[in-house]
Write a structure and sequence with these properties.
homodimer, Rossmann fold, 15 helices
Chain lengths: 436, 436
């Protein structure tokens, strides 16, 4: 029986058009990160399962991780996210390198998802992290890098926004104001995380189960109503949340002075799951009515080094997947057309026995830095022109035998001029091809 | 107990220096492939095990593949090589696209290896394939792309060479000349593949087991002695190997006219295992006395489409791993120094309350295309200079409060000149920073 030609479920075959699109995303990511002084890194495709268990708990492993036992009886997993890997790597070297540590990566990741729009089992994720002393400037910088990336694609504050919250603030409210023990605080976090997905009755029921007193319930509902920076500040004042835990006045003032406040909204329902965050948490969301969803998330985490027995080294970071980013760019018409490749010259011959000439000319032009698509089999004029057009070349060259010499007739497809050259004139040919 | 900070066995943590080195390899690969009109593609990290079983047999799966059963009871494997994936993808689309199809990729692959020098469990592999009608020009082009890549790194024919053989020739010799049945031919292929690793006695013993007659044994030993193109041609003549099966005269003449024959040696012991090759097979090898080993291999294969129920579409390709390539470049001193990043400017402040100025100036300079590493925490002059040097920046800028205005003093570290600017003069600052 013939084998399937389809890719494994939830994974993509990236044909040249799709791969050029992805390379465009990657190139822009590299640029955005480098402009802020971030250095590239990468880690293994496989990690020991223990790493994810320590960071995210058994739940993620049971539900979402591709894990198996290797031939050496090690329990391993294909990386579902990059943060545990970067934390492990930083834990190994942070003593020897200056702070802050600014690193980025674009790894391929696997999660056991039910494939749906914007969510696949395999995706590539732009990961940007800064490690160093706790500072609102690091939180702001991570937002800046993300905004810079979207700006580079041509997106502005009408197209995307950033919803923020702060886990130190939520912790303070749950523990100090509401006086919850660890179990109840955990249950309430889970409820906040599901808040926007629950129907009002289901929400009320689950809130009742947690068993806050009347005053607590009222305060909690007021908390959930926080949807602006002003409401946040007023609520923070009411519960006496101290700026020692988060220097929010300075945070918002700085964003304002950097002209970035127009990107930012406060949203109390963002807590980023039960994850490892301890400070700022945020989600970048698409403002397009047809694609209104979170594009990426991130935040500040202080405790990740401890699982490696290392002293505290706070970090802030975010991860942005290539699938959601591509959806965003397409819905806003920000994805350029990559349907054809971009060769400089397509070259072929109308006459017999010109293979060596084609190959030598192509080599000479490549040595001058040009991208040449050559075709050694003899072809008819019309076929050559058609093939050149399909190949997306900027020029087409046809070798001809002429009075015992080989010559090349070149049509520049950018300005529709045609000229004939001797094969030895590769410098002149290059100039002619590159004319606009 | 604290978790390990080491990567999974046989995998690498690529810290910024190592990742910059790898990016240099990747960038050069992209360039080399694009110069020949090759288009990028990629496929899934996981494939169904059936794909590798159909192509390479159960042996590879038992010994070398990371395979497991997913939650949907599918038997899957982490890709150990890219050829099955590219064949699957081409099988799905080849009817709709012009031939030849020229594709390349740089995927990360996993094999269950015993880690040793130049051989890890995870590596990235440059894969280049051309699909289209059977043609010696496609075989030659693949050799050209490989040679072009090595030349781009600065390597020449004194540093690397290509050993070739042809499976159509070996098949002809085994089947027609020696008259072997399938089992015996298979056993003899295995013996050739192990030839250079076996001691003479072991070789004789295994040859006896196969049971060639005296004349056959003599001919086989003569075959193994072929180590030059002349010897090959003479042997091909003796056994009446027909150029219909491989147009070798034209193949070698073309290589000669392209000045590439100096890279090529004939080596009868190269058969590329029991793999799917049907025509040219080759290995690129390092000529350095301390690293004399195969760097990469490839060849021509005609039958891969059949496992997908598709008509014949011959292909030629090669795969080159990043680990072996890096070893090659290092032993020949061809790896540039990537120990420090390359920022354009490191900027910090000596005085208090200049964070906003630092951030705004950095943004303005980034908008002009510069890569800026900023430091918001106030620091002493000497510390700033040290940090800038470590960051590998081309210039260091120090903000100072001066008569109620903020100014920036910049030292260009390329030409050791220093100048002071107003913060508004970002265009002037850019020009000064980029001066050599």
């Amino acid at each position: 029986m013939a084998l399937s030609k389809k890719p494994y479920k939830g994974c993509r075959d990236l044909f040249p058009k799709e791969k050029r699109e992805q390379n465009f995303l990657f190139d822009t990511m590299h640029l955005a990160a480098k402009q802020f002084g971030y250095e590239p890194y990468d880690g293994p495709m496989l990690e020991e399962v223990e790493l994810y268990r320590a960071k995210s708990g058994q739940e993620l492993i049971n539900d979402q991780i591709y894990s198996f036992t290797d031939r050496g009886k090690r329990e391993v997993a294909i990386r579902p996210e990059m943060t545990p890997t970067v934390a492990r790597m930083v834990a190994g070297v942070h003593r020897e390198i200056p702070k802050p540590i600014r690193w980025y990566s674009i790894p391929n990741l696997m999660r056991y998802e039910r494939p749906q729009k914007g969510r696949l089992r395999e995706h590539w994720q732009f990961n940007v992290d800064i490690f160093g002393p706790d500072s609102i400037y690091h939180e702001i910088e991570i937002l800046q890098v993300a905004i810079n990336l979207f700006n580079k694609f041509g997106a502005n504050e009408n197209q995307f926004g950033i919803q923020i919250n702060n886990r130190a603030f939520v912790d303070f409210f749950f523990n100090k104001t509401l006086g919850l023990d660890q179990d109840k605080a955990y249950a309430l976090y889970k409820l906040v995380d599901r808040y926007t997905k629950l129907k009002p009755e289901a929400f009320e029921e689950q809130l009742n189960e947690i068993g806050l007193n009347n005053e607590g319930s009222e305060q909690f509902k007021k908390y959930l109503d926080i949807d602006s920076i002003d409401k946040f500040k007023s609520f923070a004042g009411e519960i006496s949340f101290s700026s020692e835990k988060w220097d929010f006045e300075n945070f918002f003032t700085t964003l304002e002075k950097l002209n970035l406040l127009n990107y930012v909204e406060f949203n109390a329902s963002i807590v980023r799951g039960l994850d490892y965050y301890t400070g700022l948490v945020f989600e970048i969301f698409d403002k397009h009515p047809e694609n209104r969803r979170a594009l990426c998330g991130g935040g500040a985490y202080a405790g990740l080094m401890s699982i490696f027995g290392e002293e505290k080294l706070p970090g802030v970071g975010f991860g942005l997947g290539d699938v959601t980013l591509k959806d965003f760019l397409e819905v806003h018409n920000l994805m350029p057309d990559f349907s054809t490749p971009q060769h400089d010259l397509y070259v072929a011959a109308e006459d017999d026995n010109l293979e060596i000439d084609i190959l030598n000319l192509s080599t000479n032009l490549r040595n001058l830095g040009l991208n040449i698509c050559h075709h050694t089999a003899k072809a008819k004029f019309k076929k050559i022109i058609q093939a050149a057009a399909k190949s997306g070349s900027g020029a087409v060259g046809i070798l001809q035998s002429h009075e015992n010499q080989t010559q090349i007739k070149i049509k520049n497809l950018n300005n529709n001029t045609t000229e004939t050259f001797k094969l030895s004139e590769s410098e002149k040919i290059k100039l002619f091809i590159l004319e606009k």
